[in-house]
Design the sequence.
């Protein structure tokens, strides 16, 4: 006779603290799930890991043809437009992929959660880390483009680019937990989030320079937190500059707020999620 093991919904959860406690206690499981998510993605693909390299390149070529060849834009912020494009596309791509993967991970792992006593948020966090791994791989075309175009790598700041990437991981984890809480009840929310993340990415100056926009509309773009993650990444990775105070406030503030809110919403809704799973 087999029994179904269900996660203890009566556990007294402390938002934020309980979430981090689970991430630490189940870190080995998170590692295994991350490897599984990454390898499963490439096993289903004919091109394998090469698609992660080709995807930002192909997307970049589309925007490159439109803006450079049709509109005569050959540079952005005094750097080759191609470098500007790739850097924006890979960061925005990480954001979109991670939020969607993190948000759908719990529903996708329903069968496992019905058989094992495991905190469900570890599946979402593992999905976000897997997206981060793909992001690291997609940095390779950016480095290659910098070398080919003669853009000097600023060794004094380039490794600091991990800072916006790390805070972005926190941001997408928090947003993903909110999406995951809703997706258990209404899975159609995933389709809505796909559209929403595209809109956020388009409005983040990922493929156009802020200087191309009228000063009247620049504050709207700067109000988009993703803009500051991309801007900080660019400053560290190839501009050799330090972020300004607004960059730091938006990046750190949005990451902490999203993670805290995500942990709170998930903790408040988990007792009802158990029934739905």
Sequence:
């Amino acid at each position: 006779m087999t029994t179904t093991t269900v996660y203890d919904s009566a556990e007294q959860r402390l938002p934020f603290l309980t979430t981090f406690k689970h991430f630490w206690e189940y870190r080995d499981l998170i590692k295994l799930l991350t490897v599984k998510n990454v390898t499963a993605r490439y096993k289903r693909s004919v091109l394998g890991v090469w698609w992660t390299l080709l995807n930002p390149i192909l997307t970049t070529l589309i925007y490159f043809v439109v803006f450079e060849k049709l509109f005569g834009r050959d540079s952005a912020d005094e750097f080759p437009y191609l470098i500007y494009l790739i850097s924006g596309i890979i960061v925005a791509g990480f954001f979109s992929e991670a939020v969607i993967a993190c948000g759908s991970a719990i529903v996708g792992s329903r069968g496992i959660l019905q058989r094992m006593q495991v905190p469900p948020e570890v599946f979402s966090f593992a999905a976000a880390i897997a997206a981060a791994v793909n992001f690291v791989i997609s940095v390779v075309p950016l480095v290659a483009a910098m070398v080919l175009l003669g853009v000097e790598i600023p060794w004094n700041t380039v490794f600091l680019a991990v800072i916006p990437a790390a805070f972005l991981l926190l941001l997408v984890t928090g947003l993903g937990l909110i999406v995951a809480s809703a997706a258990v009840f209404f899975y159609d929310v995933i389709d809505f989030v796909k559209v929403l993340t595209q809109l956020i990415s388009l409005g983040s100056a990922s493929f156009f320079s802020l200087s191309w926009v009228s000063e009247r509309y620049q504050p709207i773009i700067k109000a988009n937190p993703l803009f500051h993650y991309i801007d900080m990444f660019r400053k560290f990775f190839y501009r050799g500059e330090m972020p300004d105070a607004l960059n730091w406030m938006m990046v750190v503030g949005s990451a902490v707020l999203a993670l805290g809110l995500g942990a709170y919403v998930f903790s408040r809704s988990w007792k009802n999620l158990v029934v739905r799973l």
Summary: The CA atoms of residues 21 and 170 lie 15 Å apart. The chain has one domain: 17-269. The beta strands are 75-76, 79-80. Confidence is low (pLDDT under 50) at residues 1-7.
